[in-house]
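Ticket closed. Logging final result for Phosphate transporter.
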Amino acid sequence: MEHITLLLGIVIITALVFDFTNGFHDTANAMATTISTGALKPKTAVAMSAVLNLVGAFMSVEVAKTISKGLINEEGIQPEVIFAALVGAILWNLVTWLVGLPSSSSHALMGGLIGAAVASAGIGAVNGSVVVTKVLIPAVAAPIVAGVAAMLAARLTYKLGGKVGERTSTKGYRAGQIASAGLVSLAHGTNDAQKTMGIITLALVAGGALESGANPPVWVIVSAGLAIALGTSLGGWRIIRTMGSGLTDLQPQQGFAAQTSAASVILASSSLGFSLSTTHACSGAVMGAGLGRKGGVVRWSTATRMFIAWGLTLPAAALVASGAELVMRTGDVGVAAVAVFLVASCFAIWVISRRQVVDHHNVNEVEPAAVEEPGVVTTAMAAVTVPPTVAAAGTTAAVTDEDLKATIPAAAPTPAAPAAAV
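Final structure:
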């Protein structure tokens, strides 16, 4: 019993560490567009997000129930399985943060849980119907729904805003962005903080500290909320840079449309108990808003890298978690080895990240690799000089001094008269 109690404590601490990484990994979901458009200063935006994530953690426990009761069968699951799942999820979070790719912390956790459960008790330990209906289908639907909604919302905001001055419109939408960013942070707390609540509750059930089917205790809710808020307060600047300016260039109108659409999708999924990826919803909304402005573009090279990371999240976390579970079967030595490996890997990733620091000072600087080369059509159009526009008969065209200078050739210089002979 002492061994189980000690292991259970390690699992709970590791779960809170995952919650912490989830916080700074997903700060970009709420605040990337607000920071990139200048609606809020970076540090102010991050502090606001941290507070609202904490508040959101107390609003619901539906997603926590999905994790603790529905995803895998509780019978026969030991605390070692939960620990292995968290190892896979934490390492995937840190690797994708290091390269600045928005990936799903939720899917990393669920992938780790599925991989560890299969390695421990076989494929029958996983509830396949729950995985399909509450994980895989929302994973595909969320970015599409949020993206289409954000694109339509962006077009609507530009249409409505065209009747007022640009300065007034920009100021108003920046204020709206702050409100919508707060809503996304609140929604993130209601969805992502609950995943850690669910995993801790599952560990307590597996360790015999709670009865099967129990809801998360109050201390679990409080600790999970504080952990994700603390992680959010650190920023996660690498992913903020990618989502804020690496995917597309956003104006305040687009930022408002993206955040409002993403928040609506996340809050709806939380109320239904879907373990939705807030990263998928927010990234899809950013791309949709980018296409919602006339002339707006999406940097598809960055988006493709992000899509690849999304596809790898579940299997990569599952693979690491299953390997950790197999190592821990050797007993206390195996558990200690996995713990040392996790700590060493986290430290190594942090050391590598210090080689090129991204923080609130340079978060809005776009890396050269993020700027795509112009295509063939764009290059050809740029090479063609457009002739001056000729006014139609019966109309007048305003011609400026600069137009005249550009179209009328300068007079040839007059040769100097020969000097008179003395």
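The mean pLDDT is 79. No further action required.
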